[in-house]
């Protein structure tokens, strides 16, 4: 994904296990395309998938692990082709304790 999502995490219990996930929420009813230097609507978007969540590949892990450096989602790819995980429009990051 460009730009890469990086999140600094604080306040976790260093010995507790946590999973870090991205939840994707479609906020617009359109596909978008880049034309002549600007983004323009490019048709209707597909129905969003029922579970648009991406779990960080290092999950679950200890709180100390998540707090030592920013958590990077460099391998997340946005697409308009569905592959079981669906397409995405906006990223919302959350931390869940196990």
Would you mind describing this structure in some detail?
- This protein has a domain at about 1-10 and about 50-90.
- It is about 5% helix and about 40% strand.
- The chain contains one helix and eight strands, in the order ββββββαββ.
- The strands form three sheets. Strands 2, 5, 6 and 8 form a four-stranded antiparallel sheet that branches.
- The chain is elongated.
- It starts with 5 loop residues before the first strand and ends with a strand.
- Percent of residues in β-strands: 35-45%
* Structural class by SSE content: mainly beta
Written as H for each helix and E for each strand, in order along the chain, the element string is EEEEEEHEE
Poorly predicted tracts of residues? 85-98
Q: What would the principal axes of the Cα set say about the shape?
A: elongated
First-last Cα distance = 27 Å
Range of helix content: under 10%
The profile of the biggest β sheet is: 4 strands, antiparallel
Oligomer: single chain
Number of helices: 1
Kindly report the average pLDDT value. Answer: 79
Radius of gyration: 16 Å
The total of beta strands comes to: 8
InterPro entries: p53-like_TF_DNA-bd_sf, T-box_DNA-bd, T-box_sf, TF_T-box, TF_T-box_CS
Domain T-box: 1-98
GO molecular function: DNA-binding transcription factor activity, RNA polymerase II-specific; RNA polymerase II cis-regulatory region sequence-specific DNA binding
Protein name: T-related protein
Top keywords for this entry?
two-stranded antiparallel ribbon, transcription regulation, 4-stranded antiparallel β-sheet, 98 residues, mainly beta, transcription
């Amino acid at each position: 994904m460009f730009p890469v999502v990086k999140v600094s995490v604080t306040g976790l219990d260093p010995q507790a296990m946590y999973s870090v996930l991205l939840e994707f929420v479609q906020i617009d009813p359109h596909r978008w395309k880049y034309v002549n230097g600007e983004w323009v609507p490019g048709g209707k978007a597909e129905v969003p998938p029922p579970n648009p969540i991406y779990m960080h590949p290092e999950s679950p892990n200890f709180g100390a692990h998540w707090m030592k450096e920013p958590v990077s989602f460099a391998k997340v790819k946005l697409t308009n082709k569905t592959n079981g995980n669906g397409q995405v429009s906006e990223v919302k990051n959350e931390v869940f304790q196990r």
